[in-house]
Recover the amino acids of this structure.
């Protein structure tokens, strides 16, 4: 891998374009990923916000669920925001019928924990590993992490709830840093991909 890693954004549903822009501004070559052969060509992957149940069903429909699980298990760096966080959880507290996860982070997540769409909010979030002060977190029907296992590291909390977790090459946030113009979280992920080499 060169100094410019190729990072995919899972483009089945959700705010794909914003992540592509954020990754490009963090010096990655960003591209949408919809099929297993596209997944095979990337060094890392972002799973965007959106609707986690829909994304899980589309991943199954597009033949992506097992390839995603295999790449994550094999150590491919992966970053999930909001719905992406839910998909990276080993367990969902209140799954919808037929909802599956990719897994990869030893955590239990509660869907829509911060409330409905009209209860969306922004907040400054202190995040371990991010220099230059807090990041602006945009919380839209956001999940939170109920609990983490021994291998997962809590890197941010808000209002007494876990909102960012890292485990090895996997990173997850309840909030949407791609909507703020502050690309430090994406830069952290690009560095994780570079370090994996």
């Amino acid at each position: 891998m060169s100094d410019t890693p190729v990072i995919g954004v899972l483009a089945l549903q959700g705010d794909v374009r914003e992540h592509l822009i954020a990754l490009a501004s963090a010096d990655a070559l960003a591209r949408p990923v919809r099929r297993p052969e596209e997944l095979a060509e990337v060094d890392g992957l972002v799973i965007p916000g959106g609707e986690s149940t829909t994304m899980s069903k589309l991943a199954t429909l597009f033949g992506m669920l097992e390839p995603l699980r295999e790449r994550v298990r094999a150590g491919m760096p992966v970053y999930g925001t909001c719905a992406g966080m839910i998909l990276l959880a080993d367990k969902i507290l209140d799954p919808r019928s037929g909802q599956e996860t990719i897994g990869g982070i030893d955590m239990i997540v509660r869907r829509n924990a911060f409330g409905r769409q009209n209860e969306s909010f922004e907040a400054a979030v202190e995040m371990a590993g991010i220099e230059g002060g807090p990041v602006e977190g945009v919380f839209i029907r956001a999940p939170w992490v109920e609990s983490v296992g021994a291998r997962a590291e809590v890197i941010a909390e808000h209002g007494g709830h876990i909102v960012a977790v890292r485990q090895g090459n996997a990173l997850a946030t309840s909030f949407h840093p791609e909507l703020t113009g502050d690309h430090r979280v994406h830069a952290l992920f690009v560095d994780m991909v570079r370090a994996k080499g």
The chain has a mean pLDDT of 94. DSSP finds six helices and twelve strands in the chain. The first helix runs from residue 16 to 25. Residues 14 and 50 are 4 Å apart (CA to CA).
